[in-house]
Amino acid sequence: MMKRRAFILACGSTAFAAGGGGRLKIGQIGTEHAHASGKMAAMRSLTDLWEVVGVAGAKGYEGVPSLTDEKLLGMPDLNAVAVETRIEDSCATALRCIEAGKHVHLDKPGALKHEEFKTMRLEAEKRGLTVQMGYMLRYNPAFVLLFQAVREGWLGEITEIDAAMGKLGDAKQRGILGALPGGGLFELGCHVIDAVMTILGKPQAVTAFSTPTRDDGVKDNQMAVLQYGKATAVVRVNHVDPFGGPRRRFNVTGTEGTFEIVPMESGRVNLSLTKARGSYKKGMQSFQLEVPKDRYAGEFTDLAAVVRGEKKLAWDAAHDISVHETVMRAAGVWQ
């Protein structure tokens, strides 16, 4: 476990490296996911890496050929597919792409049922195909630096992680959450749990809490405690927080320091160290890292390098399967 965790942390710190070579071909199935248009824009912006050959979905994108699933997957020179369907359809769609011999970018959280997700993920592994989960925090510069800090021991032994990822959900959002048994923590908290487990691995135990603010059956205010041998991680997801965006945070504390990112995707870091590390001094310091305007570009830059065989994806099937299980436990829907 420790060797695999070190590998994930090491690869995560160099995720943006992509070499030369001709453009790869990619398509998209589904336009219903909340990230669908953003993922399409990211792929189309990386013109030196990807040629977007088509989209199959309920709605199209100007300048992108609209195709059926079968037509898209039938292209022999298609390298990868971004799956951006509804969560109910995402895993089955990913499996069809894998069976067609394509690499997959699968948006989060991947599946409603764990056995379906596990089967899909292991089938890709058996065929030597990559499934890249759509967890964009993996590629955020502040998280890349955090993974480096943990890997190189800047913070000592990790004793706690405290994270919150909330928002003020409107009526449409509440309708989406109400259809998910795991609520907001399943739909949004999966991003945070993936980052927690990149650092600490699979927890020994998970305790889920849900305190809904209304009587409409929506799990809009949740918390989970992930327990480890010498650490705990607390994850909160609150969909009735009017300042949910700016309050999003990720704080890691160890025996020799603390690394805090707030707001979560801002690149703003508060770092406290018991001794100087690299270019960072002993004591407390705050700094701003440059964050790319496109939050998804790093994902598809990394995927191109993986598809070309220039590197392995840092997050393997065992990690993704463990994350999916932990997300379901944290959301109170594990069976």
From TrEMBL:
Q: Which SUPFAM superfamilies match?
A: Glyceraldehyde-3-phosphate dehydrogenase-like, C-terminal domain, NAD(P)-binding Rossmann-fold domains
Organism superkingdom: Bacteria
Q: Which residues form the GFO/IDH/MocA-like oxidoreductase domain?
A: 147-260
GO terms (molecular function) for this protein are:
nucleotide binding; oxidoreductase activity
Q: InterPro entries from the xrefs?
A: Gfo/Idh/MocA-like_OxRdtase_N (IPR000683), Gfo/Idh/MocA_oxidrdct_glycsds (IPR050463), GFO_IDH_MocA-like_dom (IPR055170), NAD(P)-bd_dom_sf (IPR036291)
Leader sequence range is 1-17
In what residue span(s) does the Gfo/Idh/MocA-like oxidoreductase N-terminal domain sit?
69-135
> Which key words tag this protein in UniProt?
Oxidoreductase, Signal
Name it. Answer: Putative dehydrogenase
